Please model this.
Amino acid sequence: MNIKTNLTSIILCSGMLFTSLAQAGNSHHSGKHYLLTGHAAAKLSLTDEQQTKIADILSEKRSQMKAVKAMRSDNKHAFKNIVESDTFDEQQAKETITQMQTVKAQMLLAKLKSKQQIWYLLDEQQREKWAHMQNKRMRRN
Model:
């Protein structure tokens, strides 16, 4: 190979490397719930007390979800065992489906409960801003 080809390859590779590094560093997901970010606190004018209460509500929800997700994992293993067994046990399948529906209902209940608790913490102006932000987000998706 000649020098020109090698140089072009090096430039292209380094450009791709720097682009990927730049993209990796620009992630806007911090692992926090949106309402716990400074951006949301500023947009909604949340007080420190509201932020603390929201963090407590979300922490409680997170612990509930962990327990429910463990049950969900058990149900997935039960589904796998039903599929991989030599004979199909319809009764076992129905019981597993019922358990899975119960788990999904518990997850939805925890989510709705936390949303209602957070909504209750907000004053009227904050609720309007939050609803506007949610509508804007839904239109984007």
Notes: The CA atoms of residues 124 and 139 lie 23 Å apart. The first helix runs from residue 3 to 25. The domain at 34-139 is CATH 1.20.120.1490 (Four Helix Bundle (Hemerythrin (Met), subunit A)).
